[in-house]
Design brief:
The strands form seven sheets. Strands 10, 11, 13, 15 and 16 form a five-stranded antiparallel beta sheet that branches. This protein has 356 residues and is mainly beta. About 4% of the residues have low confidence. Helix content is 2%, strand content 40%. The chain folds into three domains: 118 residues, Immunoglobulin-like; 110 residues, Immunoglobulin-like (Sandwich); 83 residues, Immunoglobulin-like. The chain is elongated, with a radius of gyration of 30 Å.
């Protein structure tokens, strides 16, 4: 598995809310920072101070806070709602520093910050002008509060998940899936990734987690210091596909079965049924399938006195021509299956069966 030193709140001590009082559902806020955002000529050993709107779960804040580039000898000192982050004189004289606090940081009642903090300041006369922004789009995976990792392009487009790595910059998507990372150095190449840590252990687990990358290296230069529309599309590789369509038949009381069988060995994977014509839908894993529709007699019930016997309905199977191959989250349709009228005369031979 791949160890990722990023802000996900793993290992946080469990916060215990103070007893009594009304239930607190108001997210905490960062009221003030020192230095202020976009400050310049900040002493390299000045450290950072954050003032919160209410008492915080301190391990949660510490586990969800990162500083880029990371200074040496970081110490965290609390005084009520105020956090002082100190370090030695280890920053470069002309560095742009980014302090990132994930929206997963919590107050003492377990209410998350929600909106992450991104504080940037420079030890020199100007902030680094580079910026990367975009949107994360997803259908079945979440797109809010998803970690966006910037890695050096030296690791390649698909970092080796057998080695540990640490992102060199990080942010999170907002409620619309939008993200932005500013204060980036120029003449550098980055790869951009969204990390869905489903089990919350801060490791890339191939069996459960999803990492989605932008399809090219993003290189910032003096001529192109802003890279926008670096959009990511997340597809869950374990999400099912959906096959939709309809049954067309004049037999309003017949029972219809709609099946998906594997193209390799005709194993039944999914089946749905309905009485009478109408819409159908199947959820299937990604793969290749034969699709079959079968008309059968309606569910039997006792015949009431004076009621005529039900009209016989002939069994009939229709195979959708060819195989259908679908991927995760794909929707395929409409698939229309048409049945002729069932013969009405008693004893009339049923029509021939059609099989794939």
């Amino acid at each position: 598995m791949l160890a990722v030193a990023l802000v996900l709140g793993a290992g946080c001590a469990r916060s215990i809310p103070p007893p009594g009082g009304p239930l607190d559902t108001t997210p905490p806020r960062v009221l003030a920072t020192s230095p202020a955002d976009s400050s310049v000529n900040v002493a390299s050993a000045a450290g950072v101070e954050l003032l919160f709107s209410e008492p915080m779960d301190r391990p949660s804040v510490r586990d969800n806070l990162r500083i880029y580039p990371p200074p040496d000898g970081v110490a965290y000192r609390w005084s009520g709602r105020r956090l002082r982050i100190e370090w030695g004189d280890s920053l470069a004289a002309d560095a742009t520093v980014q302090v990132f606090l994930s929206g997963r940081a919590r107050d003492l009642r377990g209410v998350a910050l929600g909106t992450p903090l991104q504080l940037r300041f420079a030890t020199g006369a100007r902030l680094s002008p580079g910026r990367i922004s975009g949107r994360l789009r997803a259908k079945t995976l979440p797109f809010r509060g998803v970690p966006i990792l910037l890695l050096p392009d030296s690791l390649g487009m698909r970092p080796d998940t057998t080695d540990a790595f640490e992102p060199i910059y990080q942010t999170e998507t907002d409620t619309s899936g939008v993200y932005e990372v500013g204060g980036l150095p120029l003449d550098r190449g980055f790869t951009v990734h969204a990390f869905f840590d489903r089990n919350g252990d801060s490791y890339v687990d191939r069996e459960s987690d999803v990492v989605v990358g932008y399809g090219a290296v993003v290189r910032l230069t003096p001529e192109r210091s802003l890279a926008d529309s670096i959009n990511l599309v997340a597809v869950d590789p374990r999400a099912p596909a959906v096959l939709t369509g309809s049954i067309e038949s004049p037999d309003s009381t017949a029972r219809f079965l709609f099946e998906a069988r594997t193209a390799a060995d005709s194993t039944l994977i999914a089946r749905t049924e309905r009485v009478g014509p109408g819409t159908i839908a199947l959820r299937v894993p990604a793969g290749s399938y034969w699709l079959l529709a079968r008309r059968t007699a309606p569910v039997s019930r006792p015949i009431r006195p004076g009621e005529p016997p039900p009209r016989p309905i002939a069994e009939w199977t229709v195979a959708v021509e060819g195989t259908i191959t679908v991927g995760p989250e794909e929707e395929r349709g409409p698939i229309v299956v048409t049945f002729p009228a069932s013969p009405g005369a008693p004893g009339e031979a049923p029509p021939p069966q059609e099989e794939p």
